[in-house]
Every structure is written in structure tokens, then in C-alpha cells.
Amino acid sequence: MGNKMVIGLASGSIMKLATCSIVAGGAVALEMEVDIYLLLQGAYAFKKDVVEKKRYLCDQPELKEKLLTGLAENKIPFPYDYLRKLKENGNVRIHVCVTAGKVWGARELGDFVDLVDDIVGIAEYVTRAEEAAVHMVF
Amino acid sequence: MTLGELRTIKPDKTVDARGMSCPGPLLEAKRSITGIPKGGIMEVLSSDSGTNKDIPQWAKKIGHEFLGTVEEAGYWKLYVKRMK
């Protein structure tokens, strides 16, 4: 329990993805296991077609360019790249809520980018969140 | 350790994380400390002020010994002794 973080990512906004990846980075540095559950719009943001065509959502569109510039200028990897790096260097797993996937017409693991580990039921998320030392929702 | 003692340390490894933003220097420290022997000292160079709080907390949580910080022009040198 003491060394696990669970993140519920309910937003597909690139702003929240950046937040999620940076927080997960801190947890990985502290040698915590991190499980990220992609809920509804969060699942949309990890669909293969969305990422490949760079159809990034932003909850504050007027800040999107500033965010992207700020990340680059401060050598903060783009959220998907950041999460990939964290998965390579730590114990990070990314799960898609099966219902969220269905909403966006994505029913197979192959419908999502290869950062996603599996498709799970919502009870798994709730159970892991209950067990975790830290549970955050973005 | 006193500032004078910190300045005489000859680290087993130096991690130059200047220009990186939090938690980049911390991730580099985590990755790099495995490359030095137990009892060895790692020096982390960081221009991100958040690292000054993060590295001591990380060291405490993981079980390494934080030795101290030396401020230089535009960056900090932080020293960690690998304990396990």
C-alpha cells in the first residue's frame, strides 16, 4: 500500500496529460508503482488515431501553444514521450476503462497507442485506488 | 557536513541535470545512483530550485544519505551517499 500511486485520468486535455505525466514522474523517482486508469475522455486521448493525427484536446485552447512552448523550452518531454520514458525507467502501467473505450469505438488494445497495457473493468480501478497510498484524479 | 567539507568531496559520479525541470533531475538521480558502489557519493548538478527540496526527500525515502548542497552561480550541487 505504501508505495503505490493510482491516477484516474478522466480528462483528455493535453494540459491534464502533462500534469499527469509530471506527477507520475515524481512518483517513479520515489520508486512508487504507478497505475494510470484512463476514464472516458482520458481514453480518447490515448486512441491510436488521435495520437497519430495529433488531434490533441486542450481544455484551455488559448493556452495550448504556450503550454507546448513552455514544455519544450524547459526540456519537459511531451506527455506521451514522458510516459514512455517513465514506463522504461519505472513501474508504470496504463489501463483503459472498457466502457470508456466503447464510447469512442475503441474495443481492442490495438485501437490504442502502445503505451496502454490493457483494458479493464471499472471495479479494478476502484479496488486499486482503495489499496493505493496515493490516489489522484485529473 | 559543512560547506567546506562539501567542497572537498570527490564524487564517484556527477549527474549534470542543469536545464532540466522538476522532476527531471530527480529521475536522473534515481537512474544514476545505481551506477555507483554502495558507500559512493553522487553529485547532482541542477538549475531547478525544486531539486533542492526533492533530492533530500527522495534520499530519505529511499534510504540514502543526503550530505548537503553547495550553491554555485545559477545552479546547485547536491551530494548523496548511496547507502543500499
Which features characterize this protein?
heterodimer; A: 138 residues; alpha/beta; Hypothetical Protein Ychn, Chain: A; 5-stranded parallel beta sheet; B: 84 residues; alpha+beta; Translation Initiation Factor IF3; 4-stranded mixed beta sheet; 3 helices
Give a verbal description of the structure.
The complex is a heterodimer of chains A (about 140) and B (about 80). With about 140 residues, chain A is of the alpha/beta class. Chain A has 7 helices and 5 strands. The model of chain A has no long low-confidence stretch (mean pLDDT about 95). Chain B has a single domain, classed as TusA-like domain (Translation Initiation Factor IF3). In chain B, a hairpin with a 2-residue loop joins β3 and β4.
Give a topology summary.
The complex is a heterodimer of chains A (138) and B (84).
Chain A: E1 4-9, H1 14-29, E2 33-38, H2 41-44, H3 48-52, H4 64-73, H5 79-89, E3 92-97, H6 98-103, E4 118-120, H7 122-131, E5 134-137
Parallel strand pairs in A: 1-2, 1-5, 2-3, 3-4
Helix pairs in contact in A: 1-5
Chain B: H1 3-7, E1 13-16, H2 24-33, E2 41-46, H3 51-62, E3 65-72, E4 75-81
